[in-house]
Amino acid sequence: MAVRPTMTLLCLVATCCAAVAPRPQPAELPPGVYGIYQDNDLGAINQSSWAFAAPSRTLGSPVDAAKAVLAVDYLAEELAANPRWLQVSPITKQQMLEARAETRLAVGIAPDAPSQLVANALLQTILGLQAGDRAAVMQALASPIFTLPPEETLQVLTSLPYIRSANIATSEAAIEALPNGDNRR
């Protein structure tokens, strides 16, 4: 008779585990998006914490703004999925998810857009901007993941507003990513 309760418990555990949806995978970025090194994680943390600290840092530089937006979108999943970031507190990881939602709202990115599609569109935008190819930029910003017309999205990137949640999440991630960082939690 002891076998029956054990089997029932195992079935319940299996059912509960099967009901949990898997976490979305982070977007894949090509090596060197954030500098000459192949490690995009630290570069994304550095770029976004610098950019979101003050709107004046990206004013007139849509490339820097697009890289910061891409970084927050990427880090929202990367910090949770990559075992490298186990030391980052769950609070900071949750703050990054909230920052992604608010950043997407500010820039005009659909809230339910898959991160890989967001990354692809932003990378195409960045490449077009760096090459001075306005047609490529407008084509990238015409992607269905954007909720604003391409010209408006480009204007937002040219004058990225202050996004408090992004400032907090990225600065916390920067502190916790340091080898001897201030792991206060």
Task: Briefly characterize the structure.
The protein is mainly α and 185 residues long. Helix content is 62%, strand content 0%.
Low-confidence stretches: none
Structural class assignment: mainly alpha
Helical proportion? 55-70%
Q: Work out the helix count.
A: 8
Tell me the Rg in angstroms.
19 Å
Number of domains: 1
The number of E-state strands comes to 0
Shape: globular
Strand content: under 5%
Order of helices and strands: HHHHHHHH
Distance between the termini: 46 Å
Main sheet specs: none
> Mean pLDDT, nearest integer?
88
Task: Describe this protein's structure.
The chain is mainly alpha-helical. The protein contains 8 helices and no strands. The chain has one domain. 62% of the residues lie in helices and 0% in strands. Helix 2 crosses helix 3, helix 2 packs across helix 8 and helix 4 runs antiparallel to helix 8. The longest helix has 20 residues. The relative contact order is 0.16.
